[in-house]
Amino acid sequence: MYLEPDAWQALRREQHDVVTVEQLYRQGFTDRGIEAQLRAGRWQGLHRGVYVLHNGPVSPEARRTGALLACRGAAMLSHETAGELWGMVPVDPTRPIHVTVPYGSSAMRSDGLHLHRSRAFAHIGAEGLLPPRTNRVHTILDLVTNAAGPEEATRLAHELAVAHRVHPTTLERAAELRRPVRHRRAIADAVSLLRDGIDSMLELRYRDDVERAHGLPVGVRQEPVMVDGIRRFEDVVYDMPRGRAIVRLDGHDSHADKLTAFTDRRRTVAAIMSDAAAVPYGWHEVTTTACRTAREVEWILRRIGWTDPFRRCPRCA
Hints:
single chain; Transcriptional regulator, AbiEi antitoxin, Type IV TA system
């Protein structure tokens, strides 16, 4: 159907000056006229039957729109392309555009376009967003299945789920829906970490390199505590026969604002007033000097009644 000039300009703006050959036909263009614009260098071909109506640089928005239009039907941005839109991966203008279409779609591959087909297409999209894209949890799964190995897959699934506030049950159900062929075990491990209250790579390294490597007891993660009427969470809590010890794992952004720093100071005061030992550790103490940190935690736990043997790890020497 022919569009009036204002409507045609609106369509061009909406599609970032990228149109299909069918849209051009409806505006009265012919194959010969389209070819003349291309030969004259006024237009550019982006994909088969998809054109950019100018001769300047093609923006990332135009590249994404062109990839969707090239599929000639239901399609959504996915994998690294959706990850760019969600802020999960850095933008890379040289990266191919990833698009997912329904399983059985007749969409064809094209230069600069990485095509995926999904049996779960109806369930993986983000509602009400333009351009169409996979939702957060399914974008995470797409990125994780492309990880080089299982350890990297677990780390990536865990970090992205924490950063984008994806509940472990949501991640688990999405994996059950998709039943990914690669890294299924790694995704399940990430779900377990999230359920154990391990919210950062620092907390994971503390569990593995300090607690497990040296035979220390496994503390309770993310235990809620009220401080001056504000609900906070302690990273690791050890309750022993003669008292309680608290380990706080402070990452680089832990005290990014004055209110958080003030509340953490008040939390320390509250711990001391309740006769609990509270010690802070950062990235260096947990990774570079993990054995020394383990010995310090052991000393604290001995004072409050822990009696099991300490284990020397291969790095202790």
